[in-house]
Every structure is written in C-alpha cells, then in structure tokens.
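Deviations from the work plan: none for this task. Representative record:
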Amino acid sequence: MVRKFPEPDVFQANCPTQRVLETIADKWSVIVIYALSQQETRRYSELQRVIGGISQKMLTQTLRKLERDGLVDRKVYPVVPPKVEYSLTPVGHTLTELLKAICQWTQIHWDEIEAARVRYDQGSDP
Amino acid sequence: MVRKFPEPDVFQANCPTQRVLETIADKWSVIVIYALSQQETRRYSELQRVIGGISQKMLTQTLRKLERDGLVDRKVYPVVPPKVEYSLTPVGHTLTELLKAICQWTQIHWDEIEAARVRYDQGSDP
DNA sequence: CGGCATCCTAGAGGATACTG
DNA sequence: CAGTATCCTCTAGGATGCCG
C-alpha cells in the first residue's frame, strides 16, 4: 500500500533543497569548496594549511565526499614523494555560484538576524 | 592579543556563507520553513502532523531556534486549551527565496551528481 | 606526502512520561 | 494543546599512530 500525499514531496526529507543541503552544508564542505575556487588546483597539504583547524580525517572525508558527488576532481601523480592535486569540476564551479548567492543573502540579512538574537536572549534572560 | 589573518575570513568558520548554513541547514529547519511558507500561520500540532516523522523535541527546538533568529514569529493566545500560531517573519520570507534558488540548482544538477555517485561507487567496488 | 585505521568522547536526537 | 524533562543511544569528529 502506497501512502499518497496531496502535497508535493517538499515535506519529505528527500526534497530537492534537502538534497543539496545534505550534500554541501556541513562545516567543512563549504570551506573546502571556497579554498578550491580560489585557485586552479590545490594540493592536499596546501588545503590543510590554508584551512586552519581542519583535521586530516575531516579533510580527507570531505574531499572524498565531494569527489564522489562529482564536485571535485582528484588527480594523483605517480611520483615519489606522492603528489595529489584537487580541483573543482565544472559542476563544482556552478556550485560556487550558488554559495555566492547564499553569501549575498547573508550579507543583506545577517545584521537583522543577530539583532533578533540579542532581542530574544535579552527577553528570556533578564 | 588578537590573532591576525592575512586572508579574508572566508576560510574561517564564521564566514557569511557558513553562518547561514549553520542557521538553516539542518534536516528540520528547511522542512519547517517550507511548511510555514505554504500558509499564513500554522499551529504546533498542525506542523507536527504535516511534517511526518519529526519528534516534538526537534519540532520545538527547531521552532525556538528559528524564532530566536527572527525568521519565525510565535503568537500565543491566552486561551484554554492553549493555542499557539507560528508564521514566517518578513526576513523568514526572504529566506524562502534563497531556498528556492537552492532548489533550482538541485533540479538542474542533481542528475549529474547522482550519476557521478554511481560512477564513483562502481569504480571503488567492482 | 598523502593518506588509512583505531580509539575515544561530546553532543545530537529519538522515545517516553509528565504538566500548565 | 503545546510543550518541558529525563533517559538512552548512536554517530560525528578530534587525537593519535602507522604505511606506501
């Protein structure tokens, strides 16, 4: 028996917006993508250095996830010592446009949000 | 002593894009905002019903967070039994525009992402 | 250099029960 | 009805150590 919803699937967790957010909206993905958008290619250690405070576990994990999603390209050079270069794919580049839109929204509305927070916190904790 | 960074704050976790994502990008926030965008006001129980599978803990927690950020308005009627109505604030409404943009990006690129995933998974697990 | 494997802990979040 | 409070679980993610 199939449950039928009158609404589109917006309320289900697999709605389009939900999907991207699951894809990119963690602390590190955005930062990694930014780091890659600033330069053609970045080496692993370069990313680690430029992104202060990321553990290599999370860096690797994030890069793997982005690579799996086809947003980041990973090129391994068969040299010793090892050399690996990361770069954004074409799809990855279109994603930076989206992030830019998000960034713009923030710049416009962030002051209001912070003000709202102050107001809220003052009201509940006088 | 203040630590000075040569880069702009894009790589720090508090960059603009990061901030919105921390604000809205959890499983439930998006769904709650969607639910509220479809109707002027929604009662608590109404939200709980329309959003399948959310616990009242998470619903309350999400609503409080959105209210604190000034994205959602909470109106309590002093009647018995209690009646509480939730609605989007003006800022909250502009946020739905942003979510729409995200949704559009997904609709354009999601097929590519899924295809990339299949390719990646086949390559690593033959 | 560019990782994986392991251990460990804090916090997210579900289930349940109670209340103004 | 619209929550709060408590417990309990499970996993994200840091720290550390080893390897090709």
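The helical segments of chain A are 16-24, 27-37, 44-50, 56-68, 90-124.
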